[in-house]
Each structure stands twice: as C-alpha cells, then as structure tokens.
Specification:
Length: 370
C-alpha cells in the first residue's frame, strides 16, 4: 500500500515538473496563440518603449505626454498672396472646396481693424496661430458680427443661421472649428519670412502655399478699382524678399511649401490645380476631387459677357491674365518696372520698357517664349 502511494506521489511530481518545463520553454521561445506574430510584436513594443523613455529623458515628459504629442495633429493650410489682387480669392475658394474643413477668409483684417495699424509679425502671427488652434476672444466674435455671415468664416454652420449674430458666438465658432481637422486660411497681409515658426511647429500638420502674380497686373488692378494703393517703391522690395524666402523655405521644409504663379494657373487651371492638390494631399498620383473639378469648370471658363464684380472669382482665365497689358497707364508701368525689375525677371516675365511694347501682342509675357 505504501509503495502504491509513493508511486502515485512520484507520478504527480513528474507531471508537475513536466508542466513547469513546458511552460518555461514556451515562455523562452515567446510562444503565443496561433495567427500572432510574437517577434514583430516584441520588436514593436521594445521600439516604442525605448522611444518613450528617450523622449521622457530628453524633454522631461511623461510617457503619456509623449503619446499625446504623437496624437494626430490638425491640418493647417495657409495661402499667402504676394499682395492684394493676386488671385488669392480664386485659389482660396478652390482650396476651401476640400471637405470637411473650415475656411477663414482674410481673418487678419480683424488685426488691422482692432489695432488701427498695419498687420505686422508681432500682432499678426500670434493671431494666425490662435485661429489655427481655434482660440477666439469676444472682440473677434463682435467683429464677425459686423461682417456678412459667410464673409470671413466659411463653414456648413453658416447655412443654418440667418445673420452673423445668430451664427457666431464663442461656443458655436469654437465648436465648429475644433470639429474640423482641416483648417484653411487665406491671407494677403503676411510676409513669407514670418511663416518659418509655423512651418517648424509641432502643433500642426502645416502646408504653406505662396501665390504670386506679375506685380504690374496686381498694382494696375488695385489702382483701377480705387483700392488701397501700394507704391511700387514700397511694394517691390517686399515681393523680392518673399521670392527669396520661399526659395529658402522650399529647401528647408520639403513637402510643406509650394510656390504657385497666377499666370500659370490661368493658362492651365486643371494642371496647376492637380499640382496644388497633390501637394496638399501628399499623394503625388491623386486625381482632382470632384468638388475641385466642378469649381474649376464654373470659375475659369466664363461663358457670358456680363461684367463681374471687383471681388468676383468667375473669369475666363486665359484672357484675364493678360488683360492688364492693355489697361495699365504708362506712368504706372514705368514705376513698377523701375522698382520691380528684379522680381519680374525672377518670376520669368518679360520687361516691356514702354507702353507700346506692352500692348504689342507679338511680344510675349514669358521670357521663355522669346
């Protein structure tokens, strides 16, 4: 009887030993249930664990703070025009057709209106960043009430209210803005050199589009429509600086910066729009969204002969980009070519010298056509 009990005890001990050996072997070999990838999971875990530890050590952040930092950032697309009358309304509206999004049309006008001064880096850039982060104050809300409901803020929310006062409160605008991952802004009172901090910011997935138009055309348009007149001796050095800065930023921030010429867009709306869309979307083989295609058909191939409003965006673009040559005054042409000669040449445009040459159809606008 004792021998039988001893034998049973030995069997139990051997069974336990075998189970323990099997378990430790499986643990050592990282054995997991079928259809899993233990080695890949282990490497992934180790990589992110090291990343969290290194970031925590380097920046004194907790692992949770680092994870929050790597969360998906809102997209911020900013269209900067070289100056007024450079085609930014047309391109800005095109960009705003990307849905879902919220589009801010020249929000920097608030800075000028509230300060009574020109928009400068010191007052303009903090405001632009605040809009990108959906941070607003009551003064901005009150200013919006003085504008039409779809003027500055363009979003689906404005279709559900009758007036700006009904549309915009601190809560409604903040909620609408934060609900959209994509925030688009069109500005014309900012300089390219101011954008460096936003391009390097970790707060946004930031894309910068710089739209430039022949300064002779832009200034002619401003003068003829009795808009704020920038003198060529003041304006031309600014555009020259923008061109130098955009070249540097394109090299420093590849994939984040794009220079677009209005004249090129007018000649080939679909091709230039595809270039713009692929840049913004990050997909170099992407086709135009249907909303963009429909917009281009309506806004770049005007069929009627009626006169469009000053700020309208419906044009026959193939005629529009050259119209200034037969409308500019001789004195303005001379002044702009005097102070903007370098910028005009760097943009690839021909200097005319006299009004007669400017109005000679056989003389091309583009240098490469000579």
């Amino acid at each position: 009887m004792k021998k039988q009990k001893l034998k049973a005890a030995c069997m139990i001990i051997l069974a336990c030993a075998a189970a323990l050996f099997l378990w430790t072997t499986m643990l050592a070999l990282h054995v997991r249930p079928r259809n899993r990838h233990p080695r890949r999971e282990s490497l992934r875990f180790d990589f992110f664990q090291r990343l969290l530890e290194e970031r925590e050590k380097a920046f004194n952040l907790s692992p949770q703070q680092v994870q929050d930092e790597y969360a998906e950032r809102p997209q911020m697309w900013v269209l900067v025009g070289s100056t007024a009358r450079s085609g930014t309304s047309l391109i800005g509206e095109l960009m705003s057709k990307t849905k879902p999004s919220i589009y801010f049309f020249e929000p920097e006008l608030f800075v000028r209106a509230s300060s009574g001064n020109l928009v400068m880096k010191e007052n303009g850039m903090p405001f632009l960043e605040a809009v990108g982060e959906c941070r607003f104050d009551e003064a901005f809300i009150e200013w919006l009430h003085t504008r039409s409901k779809g003027n500055v803020v363009r979003h689906k929310m404005t279709g559900r209210c009758r007036t700006s006062t009904q549309c915009f409160t601190m809560d409604t605008l903040t909620e609408a803005c934060r609900s959209e991952h994509l925030r688009i802004m069109k500005v014309i009172r900012f300089r390219i050199r101011w954008m460096r901090e936003l391009l390097s910011s970790s707060k946004f997935d930031f894309k910068l589009v710089h739209l430039i138009r022949d300064p002779r055309a832009s200034l002619r348009s401003m003068y003829s429509h009795h808009l704020t007149k920038l003198q060529p001796d003041y304006y031309c050095p600014l555009i020259e600086d923008d061109l130098n800065q955009i070249k540097e930023l394109e090299s420093e921030f590849p994939g984040q910066v794009l220079k677009l010429k209005y004249e090129s867009f007018c000649l080939d709306p679909e091709g230039q729009s595809s270039k713009l869309w692929r840049f913004l979307s990050g997909n170099q083989t992407a086709s135009l969204p249907p909303e963009w295609t429909a917009f281009l058909e309506k806004h770049t191939h005007k069929k009627s002969n009626h006169i469009d409003p000053v700020y309208g965006t419906v044009r026959d673009t193939r005629d529009e980009y050259l119209a200034w040559r037969w409308e500019i005054h001789e004195d303005l042409l001379a002044d702009v070519e005097k102070y903007c000669a370098s910028a005009i040449h760097n943009l690839g445009y021909n200097l005319f010298g006299t009004i007669d040459v400017a109005r000679n159809k056989s003389v091309p606008l583009f240098l490469e056509d000579l």
